Amino acid sequence: MKFRFLIALSIVLSLFGACKSREEVPAAAVEVKVPLWVSSRPNNGFKYVGIGFAEKGRSGNYQMEAKKNALYDLASEIKVDISSNSVLYTVQNSNSFNENFNSLIKLSNSDNIEGYTLVDSYENDKQYWVYYQLDKEEYAKQKALKKQQTINKASNFIASSFYDEKNQDFSSALKKRIQAFGVLTPYLSEEINFDPAQTEGLKNILDLTNLIQNQLQSITIVQNKIIPELKPYQAVYEPLKFKLQIKNKLPLQNFPLSVISEEDQVDVSESSSTDQQGELQIKVQSVEPLNQYVSFSLSPDITTLMGTDSVSRAGITLLKQFIQTPALKVQANVTQVTIYVEVNEKNFGKPTGLSSIESLIKQKFEGQEVRLVDKAAQADYIISANAETQKDISSDILEKNYQLSLVQLIVDLQLKKSGSSDILYKQQVTEVYGYANNAEKAGLNAYSNPKLQAKLAEALFFLKRKILVY
Q: Which run of H or of E encompasses 103?
């Protein structure tokens, strides 16, 4: 009995040792085999193939990055054939445009592809790969359906645009036609036909681009009877005003335009918009001396017109390949600031016959930006200076003790806008004196006192800043 027990115990210990030894031996790592499609691209006559990968260390969401690349690859397989009846055919000789257009089509396709399936995925320590397929026949059916839906949507925009045009809403009509072009952008390489009964006789997208072109070319400028003038170095400028109209002499209402000055010396805001009466105001920022006519180019700003409509704004870049946005010309005359100087120089109420103060004033306004005129009616600004002498309060004491007269010269300086009674600047020049053995000579000596030039120059500095701002 004891012998049997020992045998049984021996067997149990042997089994326990065998199990323990098996636990201590690590299992061999299973090696993941690299799929053939990673190194050799599959070729399937019935399927589009898209393969993409992403580096794990470069992106936190490497799986989405790989999927994006795979779908772009899938879209690249979908060949873009240019139909001879397509709008793209008209510019197919432009290689750079074709390349940009094809890239846009591929990107658009990668965003809109549906019905693709995930075939396989693979990853290692550094990369993540995905493999997608898309059935060619199913894709063709879905694309044809989506294309027709898009054409119907564009046709509705076109029909609505003619309704707006009949109601004299120029901007809304144009916006809807650009929207129609925008939604059709993915199909510009293909033939696109409308139902003429629905689109007021438009048969295809070429008719649509011609319609947009003709509408833009219907904008004209109402010529001003008087060309507006600009003066250099003004602190504030009144806006230049022009009227725009469309056919039938209707005002171009609430329409944005880009503005370009053709002279660097005239700086204007780069955009503006007409009001309800069709009036456009060009905001002038700065003007430097030119003494000549300058032109401004006004171009319809269809990007601003479309606002936040992302589909249409994306299509505008392509639309500009097929239309020419007309540039309208308006003019202004940059002329010198004209100044009339009016000076009265008196000595105890009598004219001095001198022109010392007048000469000093005119010297301060010499320059290409200013022209002095002989008549007040020809001037933009009028500078008036009234100079008069009077005995100083100390003169009596000096005469009694030293037989000398002390005379003070006072100059009242004013600046006015021509045709206005408003005084833009006013200053009194004082503390200029003359000495002599009699009052009359002392008064004349005050006019030749060097201090007059210094005091007058200081006052004229601030006066000039009211006329010119450098």
A: helix 95-112
Structure tokens at 159: 């029909």
DSSP letter assigned to residue 417? E
Alpha-carbon distance of 59 to 128, in angstroms, equals 11
Is the separation of the CB atoms in 205 and 322 below 8 Å? no
Burial of 269 (0-12, 13-18, 19+ CB in 10 A): middle
Range of the domain at 74: 36-138
Q: Which amino acid is at 338?
A: T
What CA–CA distance (Å, rounded) separates 218 from 249?
10
Q: Can you give the pTM of this predicted structure? A: 0.74
Tell me the C-alpha distance between 117 and 50, whole Å.
10
The answer to whether the CB of 338 falls within 8 A of the CB of 373 is: yes
Residue 323 located in a structural domain: yes
How far, in Å, are 204, 210, 300, 307 from residue 165 at the CA level? 20, 16, 17, 20
76: which 2 tokens? 């690249």
Q: Is 306 helix (H, G, I), strand (E, B) or coil?
A: helix
| 236 DSSP 8-state letter | S
Q: Is 328 exposed, middle or buried (0-12, 13-18, 19+ CB in 10 A)?
A: middle
Banded model confidence at residue 50, pLDDT cuts 50, 70, 90: very high
Does residue 433 fall inside a structural domain?
Answer: yes
Express each pLDDT in 154-173 by its tens digit: 999 999 999 999 999 999 99
Buried-exposed string 256-267: b where 16+ CB fall within 10 A, e elsewhere: bbbbebebeebe
In sign, the C-alpha dihedral spanning 262, 265, 269, 274 is: negative
C-alpha to C-alpha distance for 35 and 50, rounded to whole angstroms: 15
Domain end marker among 272, 307, 334: 334
Does residue 18 have a pLDDT over 50?
A: no
